[in-house]
Please model this.
Amino acid sequence: MKFTGELNWNNAFYHSRHSQTVVELPLKLKKGIAISNNDTAATKTINRLVFSINNKQQISSYHEMIATNEDINKLSKKINYFSIPKNFTGLVILTNQKRVLKQYRQYKNGNINHFKNAPSIYFYCWRIVENFSDGSYRPITEWSCSGGGGGGFNPHNGGGGGPCGNGNGNITAKPCPGDPVKNLEIVSSGTSGKRGGTFGCTRKDKKEKCGGVKGLKGHEGLDLKATPNSDVFSMYDGKVVNLRGSFAPGAYKKDSKGNFVLVSYRINGEPIYVQYNHLNKVSVTKGQLPAI
Model:
């Protein structure tokens, strides 16, 4: 409900079929807020709060989003949970209160596309974004993601795919806020080179053994080049679950991650953790939400 501007109880409607009653409540997002597919903020959406009541009088609630490029003002009076107008082309997506995908329907010219497992075949990631008058937009958080052949997805950072807007009608130079590194590159690790800055058995060490191979040392992270004392942003809105800030700036201790911040994210209901290590300074607090 954080991004909800208005719930129109006067225009709520219900319908029943197969021992199931569905109540749909029109939902308007706050001014300037929209739900966008990947890096495109142009798709039109109809949003509704849906209550489903089964024959045992059990109630479930969902966010129903209808995405299309058609005239949504005319369409909103014709479409509902059980009924799709002729020639409709678009998507009907239901998520629960945790933004976990519960139902996915894709239509073309009024006909549903039948897939054995549509979300695993087609990659869709929808974000809640803030649109600015200059045509730019700022991603706020993921709404729901699915697909990618079951391989998950890489959360978007704050940069987005469009121009950078500052919220005051002005275009700012890239990198966008929240995406501060222009040319991200892996840092070389001594004689191991840039490969040593990647995850896995990637470092050379005659005294070590990794993956059953002598002379290799394991590396648990990904080393990215950054200017000392430059800001580091969480790649995705999440919660700070652990941190350490006791190391002096620039201090290094072998086999230690130094100052770090551990952030938890929830993707399609599953927890994912990313730890940011070797920080000069920690400026967030444990439990902070969102972590940015």
